[in-house]
């Protein structure tokens, strides 16, 4: 196969609405960054909503009829994903010849098969570690917290979902994996390392920027995320309770907390210095005013909030399963999953050394450009070029 055209032609398939929170933030910003780099992107999503995109991106909405969005629940989630997948696969079969196809979970199997049949490298985004690992680690988190996962939780074990996603892994020419931790989990489940392309995520530097922090102010930490056992809020609260912290230190807990989990944490949430904020719309402001982010997750691909914290000058204290980007010690501090003792030592040490914390903040601010979606887009483009050069592998 000849060298790829420059600029790259990318068919990007996302089986969700583009203006939802969560993974849609990743997809939207990947497409924007690719377009800014000059890629010719044909984007398939179920609906676009108000999501702003460069004019050069051609958008096809697969669940919008006569200008009206069809909600996924009208068909059932998997039927909606499969419908989207079928439309994109048909587009490839009828003559679309991009340099690379970029797909997302549970709405990509037909697309990946069609791409392989025509010799186009089909890549499968892996926003989480291997699904079997996610199920196993989520069960461990629930056991550690003493609270079951909520009904319908995305990480609750499903044999049908696991079987589908394993077929997707097999059909893809390569898997786009966003962190070393996630790559390790795939290898542990029998996926060859050479079948993975390491990329990374980012954040919007215009939204997430550092504020002014007084050198002599008490430590201000935040937990920002979904309140269920998999995110490890119970670990963060245990460490906060037992750390040696100066008077006036605060831990802000932002995000909805699942009801049974909240009940189990009621005493810890009432601890002096803990502020339970619920949903917070202005997350950039919260990160600007925080010294550290606590995210003792049990399983992540690469948590976007860690990039957002870093760009805000807020040091992530994270589990090794968080998928944090950068160099340990400079860009984040880590601990083994569930290791409360190390997190206590990190909190106590930072609180006792304001000048050291200020130096870590300076390093984060100096590294800001590394955390951007544009930097991530450059890495993703290199993954595409590598996939193109390997086209036809694996056979």
Radius of gyration: 21 Å
Give the % helix. 40-55%
User: How much of the polypeptide forms β-strand, as a percent range?
Assistant: 15-25%
Can you list the strand order of the major beta sheet?
3-2-1-6-7-8-9
Average pLDDT works out at 94
Q: What is the ordering of alpha helices and beta strands?
A: EHEEEEHHEHEHHEHEEHEHHEHEHEEHHH
Q: Count of helices? A: 15
* Strand segment count: 15
Which structural class is indicated by helix and strand composition?
alpha/beta
What would you call the shape? globular
Low-confidence stretches: none
Q: End-to-end span in angstroms? A: 15 Å
What about the largest sheet?
7 strands, parallel
Protein model, in words:
There is one protein chain. By secondary structure, this protein is α/β, with parallel strands linked by helices. Helices cover 40% and strands 17% of the residues. It has 15 helices and 15 strands. The chain has helices spanning 23-36, 72-75, 77-93, 109-117, 131-145, 159-171, 180-188, 233-242, 259-264, 266-269, 283-288, 304-311, 340-352, 354-366, 373-389; strands spanning 9-17, 40-47, 58-61, 64-65, 68-69, 100-103, 122-125, 174-177, 196-198, 220-224, 250-254, 274-278, 292-295, 315-319, 333-335. The strands form three sheets. It has a seven-stranded parallel beta sheet with strand order 3-2-1-6-7-8-9, sandwiched between helices.
């Amino acid at each position: 196969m000849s060298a790829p055209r420059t600029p790259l032609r990318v068919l990007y398939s996302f089986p969700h609405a583009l203006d939802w929170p969560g993974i849609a933030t990743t997809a939207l910003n990947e497409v924007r960054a690719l377009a800014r780099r000059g890629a010719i992107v044909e984007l398939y999503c179920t609906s676009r909503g108000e999501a702003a995109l460069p004019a050069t991106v051609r958008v096809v909405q697969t669940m919008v009829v006569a200008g009206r969005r069809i909600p996924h629940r009208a068909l059932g989630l998997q039927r909606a994903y499969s419908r989207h997948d079928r439309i994109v696969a048909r587009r490839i079969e009828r003559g679309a010849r991009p340099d690379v196809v970029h797909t997302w979970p549970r709405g990509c199997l037909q697309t990946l098969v069609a791409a392989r049949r025509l010799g186009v490298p089909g890549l499968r985004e892996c926003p989480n570690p291997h699904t079997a690992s996610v199920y196993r680690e989520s069960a461990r988190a629930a056991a550690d917290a003493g609270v079951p996962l909520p009904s319908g939780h995305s990480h609750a074990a499903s044999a049908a979902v696991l079987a589908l996603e394993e077929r997707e892994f097999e059909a893809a020419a390569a898997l786009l994996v966003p962190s070393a931790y996630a790559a390790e989990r795939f290898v542990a489940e029998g996926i060859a390392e050479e079948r993975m392309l390491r990329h990374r995520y980012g954040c919007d530097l215009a939204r997430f920027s550092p504020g002014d922090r007084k050198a002599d102010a008490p430590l201000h930490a935040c937990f920002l995320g979904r309140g269920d056992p998999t995110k490890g809020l119970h670990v963060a609260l245990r460490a906060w309770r037992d750390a040696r912290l100066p008077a006036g230190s605060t831990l802000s807990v932002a995000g909805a907390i699942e009801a049974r989990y909240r009940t189990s944490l009621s005493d810890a949430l009432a601890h002096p210095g803990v502020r339970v904020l619920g949903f917070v719309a202005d997350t950039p402001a919260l990160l600007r005013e925080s010294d550290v982010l606590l995210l003792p997750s049990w399983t992540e691909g690469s948590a976007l909030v860690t990039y957002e914290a870093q760009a805000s000058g807020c040091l992530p204290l994270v589990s090794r399963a968080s998928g944090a980007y950068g160099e340990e010690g400079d860009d984040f501090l880590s601990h083994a999953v569930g290791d409360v003792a190390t997190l206590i030592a990190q909190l106590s040490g930072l609180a006792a050394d304001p000048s050291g914390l200020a130096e870590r903040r300076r390093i984060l601010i100096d590294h800001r450009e590394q955390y951007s979606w544009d930097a991530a887009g450059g890495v993703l483009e290199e993954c595409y070029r590598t996939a193109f050069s390997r086209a036809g592998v694996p056979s």
